Prior knowledge:
10 helices
Amino acid sequence: xxxxxxxxxxxLQLQTIVYPWAKELLDQAISNTWFPKEIPMADDLQDWKxxxxxxxxxxxxxxxxxxxxxFEVNESITNGGMPFITAPEVxxxxxxxxxxxxxxxxxxxxxxxxxxxDRNKAFNLHTDIPEVHAKEQFLVASIEKMRTGNIxxxxxxxxxxxxxxxxxxxxVTEGMWFYTGFMFALSFRQRGLMRNLGSxxxxxxxDEALHLKIGINMILTILEEQPEVATAEFAEEIKSIILEAxxxxxxYNRKLLPNGILGMNTEFINTxxxxxxxxxxxxxxxxxxxxxxxxxxxxxTANDTFQLVNFFExxxxxxxxxx
Length: 323
């Protein structure tokens, strides 16, 4: 049985686990179970009332991008993942991931309600601000192709479409853009503010680290099982997706922090996205492109994976799962 293909009803059971990494990640995800209202946010509301309007606007923009993206990731799983995956253990992880994305959306809703943020303002940002909309469309275009494109998963082109969608969803959205958002949100805690927002961000980022890992594991497995997918042209296309994601994020960050706030400005956050992009390029077997240093040292241990998968090489290195 290959990871991608046409599901057979008689195989949709856990009689044999073909991909133990999926079960290991599922076990980790279940162990990480949490609910937003476990964290009281009364102290954050007091901090919020003292923050500048620019700080507040940046937080609202962060939420306004992140909240709909959680639903879009679920659309990616529903339309671009589940229909093409044969292994029950991987499908089980997807179901768990979908619950986590809903939990994250509920978390952002909890934050909006607690901080008394104008709901219309927050929820309309992803269409009202071009830099937010551009990022969203970058992801949605891939999802729509998987949903409406009559993908032939038996062909090289169809498998490449699947990989493109995983790169845009798990690597770019969850492993780059969300990480930049986490760094921004956690920067307030570095200043002694919004500590409970920081705790919720820690919990979300722990989930997203697993979503990044499942994406890399799927890519690695596909390349091992169907090496004909790994053409030089396709490798360059994957690299170009990462670099375009950086360009979109840098434009978004200029809108997020047009004048900077205490301890954070556009160059700081754009250096961080370049640093993260280099890590993702390395994890996919490419050389770093930006050679950027990590400006946010507090993010170094909690949110990076650093395992390499040797993308598009003849011999792949197993992607180890942290326990």
